[in-house]
Amino acid sequence: MADQPAIRLDHLTKRYGAHRGIEDVTLDVHPGEVLGFLGPNGAGKTTAIRCLVGFLRPTSGSATVLGFDAERQSVEVRRRVGYLPGDPSLYGSRTGHELLRIAGQARGAPVAPLAERLVSLLEAPMDRPVRKLSRGMRQKVAVVLALAHDPEVALLDEPTSGLDPLGQRALLEFLDERANAGRTILLSSHVLSEVEEICDRVAILREGRLTALDTVESLRGRKYREVSIAYEGEPPPLAGLDDIDVIWQHEGRMRFRVRAEPAQLLQALSHASITDVTITEPSLEEVFLDYYRAEAKA
Fold first, then answer.
1. What is the pLDDT of residues 150-172, one digit of tens each?
2. What SS3 string covers 129-193?
């Protein structure tokens, strides 16, 4: 059991009649891992998460959580996971405390060991009817409901949506802590900086298909580095070199992108009087956009 993935998608496909949801997606998420689920609207992220909690029946393939089949054993799955939908609907006349009690009763585990701490961290307004709360405050209540029982697996669809910066920071630190305690988190988000910060690996979906699955560091390494230099006299002879693209040059300064081997770059720079060099890796957002540009051209 220790080696068993906490989440497994095995050739998972879901179609809505003639329309595509997800197509032949296979991936494992390991215990204690935070996996970032990326893609634009309509890429299939929410469809995959809804298959995992048994709200959608796959057209083919399978989804399992903690060894339980999400379609045939959906009650067992839901008892063990924390699920936050991208558009949570809460009973408007109920307070957060009432909803937390109802959720515990439905789960058969009325004790919510992390409730008090989460309420304090997020400053969630648990004593007011939900219909009287702003969108951001409703989101805080929904996060408490999803995570207060300390689930073994958390399936979170845009969890920081609507939260203020302090709330976002508090939630990300909390999720990182729970992952370090062995909990598994699948995190769908459009905020790539937060994915970059806490995720161990990233899965990128495009038009329902998995196009990349790797660590952030490896995905960056497949792309390029950006180099800024200052020089005296003549510029280094970079024009025409394979995998080196000059993107800006002015009065003794130059910036370019490098996909070449380091030896090729160093040899080119040796022909100039370099006074300063700065090398930066691309952000996850730049990597993500590059994947989509490449796919669009294919």
1. 999 999 999 999 999 999 999 99
2. EHHHCCHHHHHHHHHHHHHCCCCCEEEEECCCCCCCHHHHHHHHHHHHHHHHCCCEEEEECCCHH
